[in-house]
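Service request form, structural biology core

Requester: graduate student, group of Dr. S.
Request type: structure prediction, single chain
Budget code: on file
Notes: please return the result as structure tokens.

Sequence provided:
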Amino acid sequence: MKIAYLDITDWSVSVGGRHYTGRLTVDGFPTVEVSRPLTAKETLELNKHDNYISYEPGDFSRKYDSEEQLISSAGQMFHKHYKGIILRGCGLPSEVLVWSPELHEYVHHMNLLYTEIERLGGFWFHPPTVKITDGLIKVWMDLLDRIKLL
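Core staff response, request fulfilled:
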């Protein structure tokens, strides 16, 4: 199974307007920009506001209106070629965003562990919880190693 990392960037273009882009890195392969084809409706709207570039349906865009759309598109790109999981960002442990169906049980446990690690303060040194957090991180990493071997 492959492990991939999705680096998500968001920015505001106007009050209430926010866009998301993502870079997907699969272990052992170059990083790619997550992209999607533009719809006819989107190209009409874009062409109203841009006098220098003419957009056509099917042209690719790296901009997404929501994080969920970006994650879904990254999952589709990933699953065309691989089985495995996509993790948020590059830090470990992290949230599992997308997974192959046969990994559901592993992912369920990994995301529960991740939520608890974050609740306890994450990687930062908090004397009352550091041993508990270290133990949870070790279990999360062991689950990741098992997935790599499948």
